[in-house]
Specification:
The chain is an alpha+beta fold and 379 residues long. The protein has 16 helices and four strands. Bound molecules: fe (ii) ion (FE2).
Length: 379
Amino acid sequence: MLAGVNPVIIQRLQEFPPASRLDPEVYGNQTSSIKRKHIEKNLDGLTVDETYASRTLLFLQDNGTLRPLAIELSLPHPQGDKHGATSLVFTPADEGVEGAVWQLAKAYAAVNDSGYHQLISHWLNTHATIEPFVIATNRHLSVLHPIFKLLQLHFRDTMYINALARQILINAGGILELTVFPGKYAMEMSSIVYKNWVFTEQGLPADLLKRSVQTAIEAWVDDYCSFYYSTDDMIRDDTELQSWWMEVRNEGHGDLKDEPWWPQMQTRAELVEACTIIIWVASALHAAVNFGHRRFMPESGTPEYAELESNPDVAYLKTITAQFQTLLGVSLIEILSRHASDEIYLGQRENPEWTSDNRIVERNNDSRWKNCNGPVKVP
Ligand SMILES: [Fe+2]
């Protein structure tokens, strides 16, 4: 349940306890409150130096499955952000009130996970960040341009669905704010996370790299681009390509235009890298995140805690999102997760390829057609 909806954000733990990248001057000490004592009893004899996780700590077991070790729930400090967060740490329990508390903690983690999944992994990292590439491709590359032909199919329906999302989903008072997402802060969160977006880091997680999926897209794009661009000079001299990239960087992603990681688009290697990332984000990564899917923690001594002891199921239902909002939210995600009836898979084309490249070369080299060039010798 915990690792379910959004496996693309699970990361290997680099340090223990997990640290934060927030500025301590502004947000105080945000280092995790999860201690060794919380998790070592469930580590099958290992120590904390051998775990995998984020602030929900998950243990990758020998059988390849993930087991939750600890969940840390944090609130802003009542005296202000610079004092750090106030945090509670929960660990697995099967029975009694501890079992009910653990059940609730997992529900909180799952709600945060699904909110992050739809807002950041799905909307921001695929739909929103690819949009400038779609616009610049249509504005600057002619329909005969090889890079237009390469990318166009991967942008199918993106502008349409993004426009619809702006009207009813992510707008102020829209469906996202009404359901399981963090109300009026939903888009603000997404905007803040975008400030740290890095185009060249949008490649594949290591587990997919291992299965050679990234390599397949990259090898294919490299073959394709090498057919049209035999030298780096041809990249620099392609005015359509250069104005396309200028617009993506300076207009579409204008807030990030001065970041050092932008490919300069001066070499074929840079073109291949950029097209590989765009195709990966707009196809397989998007598919992975698209398809699929209060009250505070009761404190001991309160009536809510007593209810948790006597009737944990009722307490659980009172805490999680109400029935109507849940139905609305689940229906929305169900609709958003539908596959189109006219899907086209990677490597397939929507229309017969009238400029089938290899065939043109073959026929140009066929002596039977040597008189078909016309006076200007265009093959
Ligand atoms: Fe989507």
